[in-house]
Amino acid sequence: MLSNKVSRQKPCHHCKSRSAAAPPDTSTIHYEKFWLYRHCSSVLQGDRQAQKAGQLFSGLLAMNVVFLGCAFISSMIFNHIAITLAEVWILLSILKVLCLCWIIYYLLGTSRQPHAVLHRDSHAGPVWIRGSVLLFGSCSVLLNSFQIGYSAILIQCKSKVDILFPSIDILFICTQAFFLWHHSKDCIQVQHNLTRCGLMLTIATNLLLWLLAVTNDTIHMEIESQLREVEQRFAGKAPFSPLCWCNETTWCTCPNTTICKVFQKGYILLYPFNTEYCLVCCSVLYVMWKNVGRRISHHHSSPTKAKFKLQGVVFGPLLGAVAVIIGICVFMLYQIQATGSVANRQVFVMYYSYYIVLLPLMSVGAVIGTIIHALEKRELDTLKNPTRSLDVILLMGAALGQIGMCYFSIVALVATDPVDLLNSLILSYSVLLIFQTITQNVFIIDGLHRQHITSSSKEEEMKEQQIHEGYDQRRVSMIELGQEIRKVSLSYIHTYSNLTWKRRALREISFFLVLCNIILWVMPTFGAHPAFENGLEKSFYGYSTWFVIVNFGLPLGVFYRMHSVGGLLEIYVTA
Fold it and tell me: Which residue ranges have biased composition labelled Basic residues (predicted)?
C-alpha cells in the first residue's frame, strides 16, 4: 500500500533525468517525500523539539519543588506543631545546598567548556538589574547577620538551626549574586538540560524563600510582644523586665537590651530587602533559562546601542527634582516622628497628602505620553525578545501587589469610617495609586514595543564629535575654555530646538516619571511603611493577616517602581 502511493506520485524534472541515466529501483522508497520525514527529521526541527522537551522537563521539576515547599510552609502555618519552622528551614537549606553545587559546577565546569558561550544577550541583565542584585543581596546578608546576632543573644531559648540557616543563606546569597553579575547575559550552548534544570531549581528555591519571608512573622511577633510590654511598663501596668517573648511557653532574657534593640530595628528595616532580592533573582534567572541554547543572529543584535544623554529635556528634570526634594523632606520627617514610641497622626496626613499631589501629576503625564505614542504612528517592533517579554510580565505582575493592597485598604476604610480625615486621605491615596499604576503600565508597555528612532541623530553625533575633538586639542586658556562652554551651551540649545515636539514631550515625561518613581521607590524601601504603622488596616484585618498582605504587596510595589525606572529610561533613550 505504501509503495503504491509512492509510485503514483508525479516525478519531478530531476527525477526524470536521473531515471534516464540509471534503471529504476522499485525496492527503494523515497522517505524524503513523506510528511513525517519532512517535518520531524530535519536538524532544526529536532533542535526545537529537544529545546521544548528540556523546558518542559525543567518546568515540571520547578513546579514539583514549589508545590512541595508550599505544602511545607502551609502546614507550618496551619499546624505549627506537626511541621515546625525549623523543619521548613531544613528543607530550604537542602535546596540551597543543591543550588550551590550546581552554580559552582556551572562556574568551574559548564561555562569554561569550548564553545560554551558563543552568544551573549545584550538586552539581558542590564546594569541597573545587576546593581539591584548586589544592593538587595548586600542588605539581605546584613539582615541575616542581624538575625544571627539576635539568635545568638537568645541562644538559651532558640535552636541551633536559627543560627545555621542564616549562615547557609549568606553563602547562598553571595554565590548567587556573583553568578548573576558575571553570567546573566550567557546564551549557553552546552549541557542544555542540566543548565535548564539547575536554573529552574534555583528559581524555585528563590520563590520558596520569598513565600517564607511573606508568611513568616515569628520574629516580628516577638518584637511586637516586647513593644507591648514596654507600653504596659510606661502605663504602670507591669514592672519593667528586659524580656522578649520567644515562644508560647518560654521567657528569654536579653543580656543587653541596647544590642537587642539594634538587632530588632535593623531586622525590621532590612526585612523588605530580602523579598526584593528573591524577586529580582527570579527575573534574571528566568531570562537565563529562556536563553539556554539560543543562537542570536547578527541582524537580531543591534550593533548601535543608544546611550543616555541629558539633552533635550528641561521641564522634566526640574519638576522631577522638586518632587524628589520634597519627597526626601517628607520621608525624613516621617522617619523622625512615625517611628517613635507614639506615632503622630499629623505625619501620616503629611505623608499621604504628598502622594495625593504627586500621583495625579504622574497619571496625567503617562496619559499624555500614551496619546503621543498613538500620534507618532511608529511601527511596532515584532522581533522576538525574551527580555522585553519578561519586562511586560514583571510590570503587570508586580503592579498586582500594590493594587491588591490598595483594594484591601479601600474595603477596610469604607467599612469603618471613611469620613475621618486620615481615612479619607488613605482612601484617596489608594484610588489614585491604582489609576496611576494602570496608566503608567500602558505608557511603558506601549513605548517598549515601539521601534527605535535613529535617523535624525546623525547631525547631532557629528556636532558632538567636533566638540570632543575640540576638547582633546584645546590649550589651557580661559578664552578658549569660555568659547568651548559657549559651544556646549549652543549645542544643547540646538539639540533641544531640533527635536520635534512629540519626541521632546516624550523625553520630558519619561524623565519626570523616572525621578518620581525613584523617590517612590526610596521611601518604602528605606523604612516608610505607613500601611503597617498607621494601625487602621491592622486593627481591621488582624496582625497576622495584614502582615501577610503587606509583606506580599509591599515588596512587589517596591519592585514595580524599580522595574518601571528601567522601562522609562529605555523610552527616554529611544525617543
Answer: 7-17
Whether residue 79 has pLDDT greater than 50 = yes
Question: Residue 204: CB partners within 8 Å, gap ≥ 6?
Answer: 61, 62, 65, 66, 69, 95
Interval 395-404: pLDDT, tens: 888 888 889 9
Hey, which residues does 120 pair with through a beta bridge? 186
Is a pLDDT exceeding 90 seen at residue 202? yes
The pTM (predicted TM-score) of the whole model is 0.70
**Greatest Cα-to-Cα distance within the chain, rounded to the nearest angstrom:** 113
Report residue 41 as a C-alpha cell. Answer: 527529521
Cα gap 329→337, rounded to integer Å: 12
C-alpha cell of residue 392: 511586560
The span from the CA of 379 to the CA of 376, in Å, is 9
Which tens digits make up the pLDDT trace of 128-156? Answer: 788 888 988 999 999 999 888 888 877 77
Q: Running DSSP on this structure, what letter comes out for residue 452?
A: P
Cα–Cα–Cα angle for 522, 548, 332, nearest 5°?
25
Report percent pLDDT > 70 for the chain: 69
> What whole-number distance in Å separates Cα of residue 346 and Cα of residue 340?
13
Could you give the 3-state DSSP secondary structure of residue 7?
A: helix
Give me the sign of the Cα torsion angle 225, 228, 234, 236: negative
Strand pairing category for 243-245 and 186-188: unpaired
Residue 400 vs residues 441, 541, 549: alpha-carbon distances, Å: 11, 20, 12
Mean pLDDT is lowest, of 82-91, 238-247, 369-378, 403-412, for: 238-247
Taking the CB of residue 350, how many other CB atoms lie within 10 A of it? 16
Element (DSSP H or E) covering residue 217:
none
Q: What is the pLDDT of residues 320-357, one digit of tens each?
A: 899 999 999 998 888 877 665 556 778 888 889 999 99
* Inter-CA distances, 463 with 186, 252, 442, 507, Å: 36, 71, 36, 21
Which residues neighbour 67 within 8 Å (Cβ) at sequence distance 6 or greater? none
Cα-flanking dihedrals φ and ψ of residue 71, to 5°? -65, -40
Q: Once rounded to an integer, what is the mean pLDDT over residues 508-520?
A: 90
Residue 143, Cβ neighbours under 10 Å: how many?
26
Can you tell me the distance from the alpha carbon of 508 to that of 519, in angstroms, rounded to the nearest whole number?
Answer: 17
CA dist 35 → 27, 39, 125, 503 (Å):
20, 6, 41, 52
Q: What gap in Å lies between CA 574 and CA 355, rounded to an integer?
A: 29
Q: Where are the alpha helices (DSSP H) in 339-420?
A: 345-376, 386-416
Which one, of 508, 555, 515, 516, lies nearest residue 354 by Cα?
516
- What's the whole-number mean pLDDT along residues 242-271? 61
